[in-house]
Specification:
This protein has about 210 residues and is α/β, with parallel strands linked by helices. The protein has ten helices and eight strands. A four-stranded mixed β-sheet has the order 1-5-7-8. Helix 1 packs across helix 2 (about 25-40). The two termini are about 30 Å apart.
Length: about 210
């Protein structure tokens, strides 16, 4: 299993080199970037639909606002609604993610051999390590103006949580290091060996001038 740290994408190169030792330096760099992009631009899955970033942002937020309004409607009004809203625990709405292989393949151009390795790596399982700002969908959902999207009707505090649900293992990073791992049933079948902290390598330096 390749460990891909989206906060330090250059570190992925060492992981790819160990997995595919016969690859040349430039090919390792290209495959590393493709893996990073496949995670950063992960596809979002919700209510049977798939959404791509950034073209589906408006469509997805509108779809989510329906659920958020339904959640709010279950709350009984009180005389101190505003105070209660500030103090209550936010309701978590989960959004599934999966690797966006197409985004990675677009970066690889006509290199069919590297595209095949990209598909193989994702199938075997990738551990994405990330913060809430590294996955573009999570970043967008955290910054969406839900009051405006809902027409001013949404007041309930809601926490949107994006997590990988395919063969990928997701590890959310915090200030103190690893916080939480999310593994889907498919990912659970992947036997992952302990991997030492990769040495940071500058991918740009590996590319030819």
């Amino acid at each position: 299993m390749i460990v891909c740290n989206l906060t330090k994408p250059e570190a992925t190169q060492e992981q790819v080199r160990k997995t595919y030792p016969k690859l040349g330096q430039t090919d390792v760099a290209q495959l590393s970037v493709a893996l990073v992009l496949a995670g950063k631009y992960a596809l979002a899955h919700y209510d049977g639909e798939t959404y791509r970033y950034p073209e589906d942002v408006s469509k997805f937020t509108k779809a989510l606002s329906v659920t958020l309004n339904q959640i709010q409607s279950t709350v009984e009004p009180t005389k101190k609604a505003k105070a209660a809203a500030a103090e209550e625990e936010p309701v978590e709405v989960k959004v599934g993610l999966s690797c966006n292989i197409v985004e990675g393949e677009n970066m690889l151009g006509d290199r069919k051999d590297l595209k095949a390795l990209l598909g193989e790596a994702v199938k075997e399982g990738v551990e994405y390590q990330y913060t809430s700002t590294d996955i573009l969908w999570q970043w967008a959902l955290d910054r969406a103006n839900w009051t405006t999207i809902s027409g001013g009707e949404l007041t309930r505090r809601v926490k949107l949580k994006a997590a990988f649900e395919d063969s990928t293992l997701g590890t959310e990073l915090g200030v103190g290091g690893k916080v939480k791992k999310t593994r889907s049933p498919r990912a659970a079948a992947v036997v992952a060996e302990a991997v030492p902290e990769p040495e940071a390598v500058d991918i740009e330096e590996a590319l030819p001038e």
